[in-house]
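Database export, one record per block. Field names are fixed; values are copied verbatim from the stored entry.
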Amino acid sequence: MSKPFLASRLKRLVALPALLAFALVLGFSPINSAKAADPTPVRVAMFSWPGYAFWFLAKEKNFVPEIELDIQIIEDPYQSFGLMQAGQLDVASSTAEYGPLAAAEGNDIRLVAYTNPSHGTDQIIVRPEIESAKDLKGKSVAVMEGGLTQIFMGIWLEQNGVSIKDVTFNNLIMDDAMAAMISGQVDGGEFWEPYAKNVKENLEGAKLMADSSTPFWSKNGLLADAMYMRKGFIEEDDGKIAALTLKAYFEAVKFWRENPEEANEIMAKALQFEIEDVELVVGDGSEVGGIVIYGFSDSAKFMGAMDGDPELEELGQHNGQIKDHYDLVSDWWVKFNLIDEKPAFEDGVSMKPMQVLVDSGYEGE
């Protein structure tokens, strides 16, 4: 059972159309067919960050005509999760830590895909007068409580001899965290790009203390993004709509890999970001950005739905690592007193959409 804190945060906060008869007679797979009577609406939420903007590519290019994406920008992921639990959203892209919290709360939200590990975009930055982690004792740091930024900060503090009990964690979304850091309301924080860049440019003497590009963070895969779906949506038409939604996302990733300049322009326009800030996060096609974009096969291997290890060997990740990730995150939520005990894996993660798509023969790249 989760603590009252989690419940209070949550309070803050379509069936598959029939395919053409002749296609069914011929035995075409609904996952691979591009013909549908009327597209099924799929309601997607994300906050304004390039790592999630592949949804805009999927919508603009209409890679999967069987579904119609309705995309909303919601800056607080807990608001998105609350709307999902209320049945008002179907899918959310967010950071990859919510599965155990959803399971502990007993709600119907499941992590269904690991989409991109951080590789430098996540950074711990402190004010000029802070020389080491020990200087943060008795001071405040900006994180998103119940988010990966809190765990990143907690691990870094403990690695440097500071207990999480010796520091005050201020719960701030990224815009507010950046403002609090620059104005001196907090003494440090965890920031992802382009907010990290903005903090360093606007706070003279700001110090970078840690980032997610080092082997320790790359291998454990803690800092990453994921896709979530509500249970009712996952079960629609035996998982076919959820699988089609996954396919739309990963077709967008495939398009981005083949057409990075056009794709980044579409994503920048949709987010109202500068193109340089989009490239800073996702890369420009010639260099990896601050995150590593997983295509379908790498995600499926990380989730354990496909044989083999993710192919990016420099990350050092392995098949089925989502279970290790779930355990690591769960242990820290117990440590932060957000949940009482580690929930069962299947109560926070659903393999069904990924497995339906794999079984359909889809390979992505």
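Remark 1: The radius of gyration is 20 Å.
Remark 2: DSSP finds 16 helices and ten strands in the chain.
End of record.
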